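Schema walk-through. Below, the input block comes first and the output block second. Nothing else is stored per chain. Lengths vary across the set, and this one has 234 residues.
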Amino acid sequence: MGRNRRNLRLNERIEDVRTGNPTTVQQFELFEIKAHYDQSMALIEKQFDIADKLNQEGKIEESKAILRSQVVFLQGVLDFYIHEISKYALYHIFKGEWNQTERYNNFLVPMFEVEKAIESPESKEWFFSYLNKRFSREVFLSAESLKDQLNLIGIEFNEVMSRAFPRDTEEQSRAEGKEIVMEMFVRRNSIAHQLDRKHETAEQEEIDKEYVNKFMENTKAIVTAIHTIAESKG
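--- output ---
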C-alpha cells in the first residue's frame, strides 16, 4: 500500500482564517480618500473646544491630556491617508495607468498571491486585496519609511517636501521637511508609549495649543502636497 502524499500546492495554504463573512475591500477614488482625511481632521480639530473648556475651568493637566491625544490622532490620520493613497497609486501603476517606479519593479509578492492571479487572469482585484492586507500591518510615519513608501508609489519625497515646506532650495525643503517628519514621529511615540514622560526624570514634556496647531498645519501641508501630486497624475 502506497503512502498518502501531502498536497503541497501553494494555493492550499489557508491565510487569515476568521469566523463570519469576509469584508469586501473597497476601492476609493482620490476625492473619497481626501474626504476620509478631511472628516478625521475635523473631528480632531473639534477637540480644541474640549481642551479650551478644561483649561478655563482650571483643569490644566486634563487639558494637556486632550492636546497630547490630538498629536497621536494626527499621526494616525496621516498614516491612514498614506495607506489609502498607497493602495490607490500602486493599483493604478499595476493597471498601467501610472508610470512604474524602480521600487515598484522590485516589489515582492508571495507566490500564493501570484497563484490567485494565475487562476483569475481576467481580474486584478487580487492585487488590491493583497495591498490592503500587506499595508494594514505597516506604519509609514518615520522619515525613512515615509520616504520609501512615497518613492515606491511614484510620488517623490523631495517634491512633497518642496511643496509642503517651500524654501530657497529643494535641499533646504527636503532637510526641513525630513526634520519635521522625524520630530512628529518621535513626539507621537513619546506620548503613545510613555504618556510623554521623560525617561530621565519621569516628568511630562510641556505641550500647548500653539504646538498642536503647528503639528496640525504640518500634517495638512504634507497631505495637501501628496494629494496635489496624485491628482496631477490623473
